[in-house]
Write a structure and sequence with these properties.
- The chain is mainly beta.
- It has 3 domains: 105 residues, 3-Layer(bab) Sandwich (Phage tail protein beta-alpha-beta fold); 625 residues, Maltoporin, Chain A; 89 residues, no CATH class.
- The chain has a 22-stranded antiparallel barrel.
- A hairpin with a 6-residue loop joins strand 41 and strand 42.
- The longest helix has 17 residues.
- It is globular.
- The N terminus is likely disordered.
C-alpha cells in the first residue's frame, strides 16, 4: 500500500509540474457530492479548474491535451464526475476516474476494432444519443491517423480493412457484370455494406446527420469526403433504427469531421501497382484557425488514378485487353467545418462539402472483341454537395438542445456509348438524389437514481428525399427516352431514448460494479409508403470493474427505395415449351406463358429483429489490454426482391403456385398487357393472342424474401508504453458470419455467406504499430476467407485472399528551420503481391475472379510527403 501511495503521489507531482492540478487530493466521498455550477462557455482548462475549485475535488489534466479547446456552459447541480464529463463532451478527450480523482487526457489510441466507448464516457458516441453514457452496442472506431498508418488514401479504403464489411456492391474494386454486380457501381462510388446485407441497409451519417443517397440505390458514397477532413469514423454493426431511422438494419457509420484546426498542412502522394496501372497522384491541403470562442477547418483534396485493364494482368489474359478492372478517375473534394460560440450559451456549427469525380469504365461483351466493336463505354460525372448548419443551446439544469437543417444533392451524369458490330448507340443516364431536412433535439438529466442521473434524449423533425431519373438513347438519330420520372417522399419522425444508471461503482456492491439499462423508440411516417415504430432495449452491466457485459435487442427497418417504387412493370410472352419441367397438367402445345417482371405494387417497409451480446475484458494486471467478443443475430424479413430464381424451371414447381394463374381469362390477359408501360415483349415468333396464353407467371418484385445473418466478432487491443516516449499498439479483429436467404415462404433457405460473390465466413485483420516522437512503423495481415463456387458441378473452392500491408513514417526532421514540420511516409500494400484465385465462368467474357472479395490491385507502393505550419 505504501508503494502504491508513493507512486500515486509521484504521478500527481509530475502532473502538477508539467500541466496543472486544479485542486489538492480529494477523498472518494467528495467525488460523490453534488455542487451547483453556473459556468459560461470558456477555455476548457479554465472550466476544469473552476469545477475542481467548486467541488473541492481533484481534476488532473495535461495542458497540451486541452490547449485550444472550449467548454460549453455548465449550469445545474452535478457531481464532480458529471461536471467534468459534461464540459469535456465532444472534444475527443478521454475521462477516467482514479480513486475519486478525475483524469482528462488525449486518447493514446482509438480502438482498431469493436470498441465499447467505455473510456470515452464524456462523449456522445454513435449508438446512443445520451451524453456521458455507454452504448449497449459495440462501437468500432478508427481515427484518421490510424487510416493513414494503414496506407489509406481515402475513406474508400476503410471498406477493405473493416472485417464486418462486405466489399461487394457499390465499391470501386467490383468489376461488375453478371453475378458480380452488373452495373450497380457504374459511377465508381464507395459504400459501406455491413454484414453483406446491402449498401442500402447500412446508414451512413456525417457528423450525425444524413446526406444525399448515391445513384439509384440508398447507399452513401463515403469517398466524397477527403481523409484530411476526417477526425474519426465510428461504426455500429448492430441494428439502430430506433435511434437513427430507416436503413440502419446492418448498422450505422458516422463520419466525424474535424471542426477546428490551427495552422496549415499541405501534402502530396504518388504511388502505383508494381504489376502495372493504378498510378495514383494525390494532392491535399488542410488549414484553419482556432480562437478562444471557436474555430474552423477547410480541407481540399485532388486525386488522379489511372485504370487497371485486363491487358495489365496476366491472369485476366482470357479477356479482351480493353476490359476495365479498376476505373480511371479524376476527383476534386472540398470540406468546410467550424464552430463559433455565441452569446447566451449558444454555439453555431457548420458542416459543408463538395465533391466532383469523373471516371471511365469499359466493358467488352465478348472475350475476342474490343469494347469499341461490341461493348459498353461509360463516362460518369458525379457531383455532390451538402450543407448543414447547427445551432446548439445550453439550457438550465444541464440540458442541451440543438436544431439543424440539411440540404444535400448527389447527381450522377453518365455519357454512355454502346457498340454493336462497331455501330455506336449514344445513351445518357442521369440520376439525381436530393435530401432536405430539419431536426431538433434535446438531452439532459431527469431525476436522480442510485447509480446517477437518469437522462433523456428526445428529438424529431422532417426530411424529404427526391430521386430524378432520366435515361435516353439515340436511335437512328432520334433521341428516345426509355425511363423518366421524378419522385419524392416526405418523412416525419420523432424519437426518445432513456438511460437509467441503477448501480454505480461507489456502492461497492459484490458482483454489481455498474448497471445501466436503456430504452429507445422511434416513429417514422414515410408519406405514401408506410409508418413504422421501432423499439430498442439495452443493458450495460459490470460485475467487476475489469469486466463489462453489454446486450441490446431491437427492431430495425428500411423503406422501399424510390427506384424500387418507380420500377416499371414489364411483360414478356414466351413459348410454353421452354418451361421445364412442365406443370401438371402441362401447358398445351402452341400455348404461351405471360411472364411479369419489374416493378410491383404495394411495397412496404422491410423489417428486422436484431440482438447482440458483448463481453469486454480490461484486466488491471495488464494495463492497456482490451479483449472483446460479440455475438449478433439479424432476422431480416419482408425483403424486396423477385421471388423467383430460374423462372424457366419454376412453372412446374409447387412452391410458386401462388404466383401462377393457369388458364387465365382472355380479358384478364388483355387488361394486364394494356397496362404495361413499355408494351409486351413478344419473343414467341407468332402474333399475340390472349386466348393462347396458358399461364400468367408473376415474378415482379415484392416484399417476399427473408434473410438470416448471425455470427461472432472478436477484437483485441494492447497499448504498451515503452521507454523513451515509445509506444507499441497491437490489435486484431475478426468477424465470422453465417447468412442465408429465403426468396419466398415455403422455399428452403439458400446459404449466402461462404458462397461466391457473397461475403466469406471469415474476415480478419491483425497487426500493430510502433510509434516514437519522430517515427512510426505499422504492419498488418488481412485475411478474406475462402468461398465456394456452387454455380455448377463440380463445386470449386476459391482460395482465401491474404495480404500483408506495411507503412513507415519519419517526421520532424528538425525542431526549427526549413526542415521542420515535414512528414515522409512509405506505404506498401499487399507486400507479397497476392493475386486473385481464378474461377470458372460460363461466359468467357466475364471477369475470371471473384471481384467482390479479391482485388486485382496487387502490390502497391506509395510515397507521401506533408508539411505543416
Amino acid at each position: 500500500m505504501k508503494t502504491k501511495g508513493a507512486l500515486r503521489a509521484g504521478c500527481l507531482v509530475a502532473a502538477a509540474l508539467t500541466s496543472g492540478i486544479s485542486a489538492p487530493a480529494a477523498l472518494m466521498a467528495q467525488a460523490q457530492l453534488r455542487a451547483d455550477y453556473d459556468l459560461p462557455a470558456q477555455d476548457l482548462a479554465e472550466a476544469l479548474r473552476s469545477i475542481a475549485r467548486t467541488s473541492g475535488g481533484e481534476v488532473i489534466f495535461v495542458a497540451e491535451a486541452v490547449q485550444g479547446r472550449r467548454s460549453p456552459p455548465l449550469q445545474g447541480r452535478f457531481t464532480l464526475a458529471e461536471a467534468v464529463r459534461t464540459v469535456v463532451a465532444g472534444t475527443g478527450l478521454v475521462v477516467e476516474t482514479h480513486e475519486g480523482a478525475m483524469l482528462v487526457r488525449a486518447p493514446t489510441s482509438a480502438p482498431k476494432a469493436a470498441a465499447s466507448g467505455a473510456k470515452e464516457v464524456g462523449i456522445t458516441v454513435t449508438g446512443t444519443r445520451i451524453r456521458g453514457t455507454q452504448s449497449p452496442s459495440p462501437v468500432i472506431v478508427m481515427t484518421r491517423r490510424e487510416l493513414e498508418e494503414a496506407g489509406a488514401s481515402g475513406l474508400a479504403d476503410f471498406t477493405r480493412i473493416l472485417p464486418q464489411n462486405f466489399s461487394g456492391g457499390q465499391n470501386p474494386g467490383v468489376a461488375g457484370g453478371g453475378d458480380q454486380g452488373g452495373q450497380s457501381n457504374i459511377n465508381n462510388s464507395a459504400t459501406l455494406n455491413l454484414r453483406g446485407l446491402g449498401p442500402d441497409a447500412t446508414l451512413t451519417l456525417v457528423n450525425g446527420h444524413r446526406i444525399a443517397y448515391d445513384a439509384l440505390n440508398q447507399g452513401v458514397d463515403i469517398s466524397a469526403i477527403p481523409l484530411a477532413a476526417v477526425e474519426r469514423i465510428e461504426v455500429i454493426a448492430d441494428g439502430a433504427s430506433a435511434l437513427y431511422g430507416s436503413d440502419a438494419v446492418g448498422g450505422v457509420a458516422n463520419i466525424i469531421l474535424r471542426r477546428r484546426y490551427d495552422g496549415l498542412q499541405v501534402g502530396a502522394r504518388l504511388g502505383g501497382s508494381t504489376a502495372g496501372g493504378n498510378v495514383q497522384q494525390q494532392y491535399s491541403m488542410v488549414g484553419g484557425a482556432d480562437w478562444s470562442s471557436g474555430g474552423f477547418m477547410a480541407a481540399y483534396d485532388h486525386g488522379r488514378t489511372t485504370p487497371i485493364l485486363a491487358a495489365d494482368r496476366e491472369y485476366a489474359s482470357s479477356l479482351d485487353g480493353s476490359q476495365t478492372l479498376i476505373q480511371r478517375s479524376i476527383r476534386h473534394a472540398l470540406v468546410l467545418a467550424g464552430q463559433q460560440a455565441l452569446t447566451g450559451g449558444m454555439t453555431l456549427e457548420l458542416d459543408a462539402f463538395f465533391n466532383r469525380r469523373r471516371s471511365l469504365k469499359q466493358t467488352p461483351f465478348f472475350a475476342d472483341r474490343d469494347v469499341l466493336t461490341d461493348g459498353l463505354v461509360n463516362r460518369p460525372l458525379v457531383r455532390s454537395w451538402a450543407v448543414t448548419p447547427t445551432l446548439r443551446l445550453a439550457l438550465p439544469h444541464g440540458w442541451e438542445a440543438s436544431i439543424s437543417a440539411t440540404r444535400a444533392v448527389s447527381r450522377t451524369d453518365i455519357d454512355s456509348r454502346r457498340y454493336t458490330a462497331s455501330v455506336e448507340v449514344p445513351q445518357r443516364l442521369i440520376y439525381e438524389n436530393r435530401t432536405t431536412g430539419i431536426e431538433a433535439n434535446a438531452e439532459g438529466p431527469l431525476f436522480r437514481l442510485p447509480g446517477g442521473a437518469a437522462r433523456l434524449a428526445v428529438g424529431g423533425g422532417y426530411r424529404s428525399v427526391l430521386l430524378d431519373v432520366n435515361v435516353a438513347q439515340s436511335v437512328d438519330g432520334t433521341v428516345v427516352t426509355t425511363r423518366d420520372f421524378t419522385d419524392s417522399r416526405g418523412v416525419q419522425f420523432a424519437y426518445g431514448e432513456l438511460s437509467l444508471p441503477l448501480v454505480a461503482p461507489e456502492f461497492g456492491l459484490p458482483l454489481i460494479h455498474r448497471l445501466t439499462v436503456s430504452a429507445a423508440v422511434r416513429y417514422e411516417r414515410h408519406e405514401g409508403i408506410d409508418e413504422v415504430a421501432t423499439p430498442k432495449l439495452g443493458l450495460v452491466y459490470q460485475p467487476h470493474q475489469d469486466v463489462t457485459l453489454r446486450a441490446s435487442w431491437g427492431e430495425s427497418f428500411k423503406v422501399p427505395t424510390l427506384d424500387q417504387v418507380n420500377l416499371v412493370p414489364e411483360g414478356a410472352l414466351l413459348p410454353g415449351r421452354l418451361f421445364s419441367p412442365q406443370p401438371q397438367p402441362p401447358i398445351p402445345a402452341g400455348e404461351t406463358v405471360l411472364l411479369l417482371l419489374g416493378g410491383g405494387e404495394g411495397l412496404r417497409a422491410e423489417r428486422a429483429t436484431t440482438w447482440s451480446t458483448t463481453v469486454e475484458l480490461r484486466p488491471r494486471f495488464a494495463e492497456g489490454l482490451r479483449v472483446e467478443a460479440t455475438y449478433f443475430d439479424i432476422d431480416y424479413r419482408d425483403r424486396i426482391a423477385s421471388p423467383v430464381i430460374g423462372f424457366l424451371a419454376g412453372l412446374g414447381n409447387p412452391i410458386y403456385r401462388d404466383l401462377i394463374t393457369f388458364d387465365p381469362a382472355p380479358e384478364l390477359v388483355e387488361s394486364i398487357v394494356a397496362g404495361l408501360p413499355l408494351g409486351l415483349d413478344n419473343i414467341t415468333g407468332q402474333p399475340f393472342d390472349p386466348v393462347l396464353v396458358g399461364a400468367i407467371f408473376d415474378s415482379s418484385i415484392r416484399n417476399a424474401a427473408r434473410e438470416r445473418a448471425r455470427g461472432v466478432d472478436v477484437a483485441m487491443d494492447y497499448d504498451l508504453d515503452l521507454s523513451a516516449g515509445q509506444r507499441l499498439l497491437l490489435s486484431g479483429s475478426a468477424s465470422y458470419l453465417e447468412s442465408a436467404r429465403q426468396l419466398i415462404e415455403g422455399q428452403p433457405f439458400a446459404e449466402r455467406a461462404g458462397r461466391i460473390f457473397n461475403p466469406p465466413h471469415w474476415r480478419a485483420r491483425f497487426g500493430g504499430t510502433w510509434r516514437s516522437e519522430r517515427a512510426s512503423f505499422t504492419a498488418f495481415l488481412n485475411y478474406t476467407g475462402p468461398v465456394l463456387d456452387d454455380r455448377r458441378a463440380p463445386l470449386q473452392r476459391i482460395a482465401p485472399f491474404v495480404t500483408v500491408d506495411m507503412s513507415a513514417s519519419l517526421r520532424g526532421f528538425a525542431d526549427s528551420g526549413p526542415l521542420s514540420g515535414f512528414e515522409l511516409r512509405l506505404n506498401v500494400l499487399n507486400l507479397l503481391d497476392e493475386r486473385p484465385d481464378l474461377i470458372r465462368n460460363p461466359n468467357p467474357g466475364s471477369v475470371p475472379y471473384d471481384s467482390t472479395n479479391q482485388s486485382p490491385v496487387g502490390r502497391f507502393i506509395g510515397l507521401s510527403l506533408t508539411r505543416s505550419w
